[in-house]
Amino acid sequence: MNLDILRTSRIFITINAAIFAACITSSAAEPGRTAAAPRGPQGPPIVSPEVSSDHRITFRIVATNAQVIRLNAGDIPGLGQGTNLIHGTNGVWELTIGPLQPGAYRYTFNVDGVAVVDPRNAATSESNNNVWSLVNVPGSDFMDTRDVPHGAVAAVTYYSTTLKRFRRMHVYTPPDYERGKGKFPVFYLLHGAGDSDDAWSSVGRAGFILDNLLASKKAKPMVVVMPAGHTRPFAFGARGASRTNAPATRPPDEFLAEFVTDIMPYAESHYRIYADRQHRAIAGLSMGGGQTLNIAITNLDKFAYLGVFSSGLFGSYGRTRDGAAPPSSGPTWEQQHLDALDNAKAKKGLKLVWFSTGVDDFVLETSRGTVDMLKKHGFNPVYHESSGGHTWINWRNYLSEFAPQLFR
Question: Is pTM, for the whole model, over 0.90?
Fold first, then answer.
């Protein structure tokens, strides 16, 4: 190589290095700017949650200075108000529970009185007022993620003319919906009190349940619309918990009007679904079951299939979660809806009214009383009592039992 060229190259590299160093120095010295602080200690690498082959779950969190950490998970049997994690080495807290039956479970950590999601777990599930971490224990054919054709679940934003604001719903479309041209029946699936439109597709695993039913030819292809049943922040006893026999002077549940005015028309104008009674179903769990009865009984000409999971006419029969007796003031739900209940013409196109509640569920007497009342007015409800209580363990099973009966 020519010595002049080599000497010039060295000078060029030296100049560029000096310019780069000057830029760094200038940037750090610029008024109002501070140099980036070095990252603090990140703690030891951990896995959380870790699901073992025997269906046990190990939860871990790094919190060196914490005093007490508890695991909160309402659907996990035996935890009660929570269970303490054990403080190990390097600031790692750990707890192993189980074995558990297959299914999805929500949980949070309570770190010295502050509820937090699991920072090592990207899977979450939303309720109306907060977010949970989510862990799935495999081992159930009807809701596992399997090698079958999969549909899609979309989070859909729409404008509610009833509520004068934007709202969100989740919508499941069956496999190959995007590439097809035909129409599908529609199933409106409602969540329970305290939950959100995300619940059925996350902790409820509705999309996977439908995928597996379709793959085994146990259900008809359908579009499933999962709206947000709360119209405001939730508190038990407040409007939005949908006590279906509320006195006549109580303000109506805004969701009932929004469902007919906004949700159904949006689904019918944005998805390839039939808009007649024989291709339309509605079901819900707990609060959503009460909303199902309120919507469907007063619009019986619009629905051929009704499903009520762990629910009934809250306040009319049985006792509340805290053991209180139903209020006696004002007309009952039955009295307010006599015309609809005794409409023989509207009943003729009704193909299925299906109830299921766990024998340990606090709403058991409510479900039984509601079924008896419907029979008194000429309905022919199918009623099942399962094991268990008021949990997602049951509601996922109920969905897998109810959906195959639709649109036959």
Answer: no
